[in-house]
Amino acid sequence: MFKAAVVQAASVPFDPDASTAKAEKLLVEASENGATLAVFPEAFIGGYPKGSTFGAPVGLRTEDGREQFQRYFSGAVSLDGPEIARLAQTASDCAIFAVVGIIERLGNTLYCTALMLDPDRGVAGAHRKLMPTGSERVIWGFGDGSTLDTMDTPLGRVGTVICWENYMPLLRQAMYAQGVEVYCAPTADDRPTWAATMTHIALEGRTHVLSACQFITKDDYPDDHPFDVELPHGDTVMRGGSMIVAPTGEILAGPVFDKEAILYAAIDPQAKVRSHLDFDAVGHYSRPDVFELNVHTEPQASVRFA
Is 32 a catalytic residue? Predict the structure, then answer.
């Protein structure tokens, strides 16, 4: 048994130093409360610019939109940057495995990435979102199959799937095939329907599911940040809805809305084993004679020098 934490908190948009400091504080709090694993929301470092269009209607780009992108780009972090080093050091000091959503800067492209920080190894994995949703494709690049990581840890095999990637059945199947036991789902989806998806995945994969979403309001953004559309919840940009689900579909914590909180739950690794008595999506309940999935895990490069 171990104790897991899901962090529901506001980032400091476009300010990686301040967001990192807040994440460090929350990691310490979770550790002091006995957690040895903590999951943070999507884009916690760098920020999620919900409601902004970056001046990119079909067929046009505006100079104001390019200025917005420049600020967003400047607020992103690189994997070898000081913010990630600080987070890795805090995870090590707290002896806690952390999954943290970041906006990753690589060259001239941004990626929505989920870091996996091992207290003994530092950055043990960095999963780049395969399929940015809708207008996210204006500001984020596409990940590839080389970062569909799951990894062995003292807590079990940990993997991460970001936001609406969780609606991709083949991606989920790939995660199950890698033996994921602790399925982490950083998200920006704060709708009540998200809970049904998390419960379904727990049952389908017979895995613990830990989902983290921000609770953040307009006041947390810079005063000049443009909200180009009317938000469904007024001044609340994201309502949260974070939760922890057992392999049986039992909700262990949450969902919590409209406040910052750290959710905790005791995780029994053997619950997964027991739940596979009657279902294994990639084993005795699969039909490889009928269905087959091929996953391409080679890194994809636009230029190769021979």
Answer: no
Catalytic residue among 42, 104, 181, 204: 42
Q: Tell me the per-residue pLDDT of 18-61, one tens digit each, with 9 for 90 and over.
A: 999 999 999 999 999 999 999 999 999 999 999 898 888 889 99
Q: What is the mean pLDDT of the chain?
A: 94
CA 182 to the chain's CA centroid: 13
129, 165, 181, 184: the catalytic one is 129
E strands present in 40-89: none
Q: What is the DSSP letter of 300?
A: P
Catalytic residue among 112, 163, 184, 213: 163
pLDDT the model gives residue 301: 85
Instruction: Identify whether 163 is a catalytic site residue.
Output: yes
User: Is the whole-model pTM more than 0.90?
Assistant: yes
Q: In this structure, how many other beta carbons lie within 10 angstroms of the beta carbon of residue 78?
A: 13
Q: Strands 109-118 and 122-128: what pairing?
A: antiparallel
Rg, Å, the chain Cα set: 19
β-strands 109-118, 97-106 pairing: antiparallel
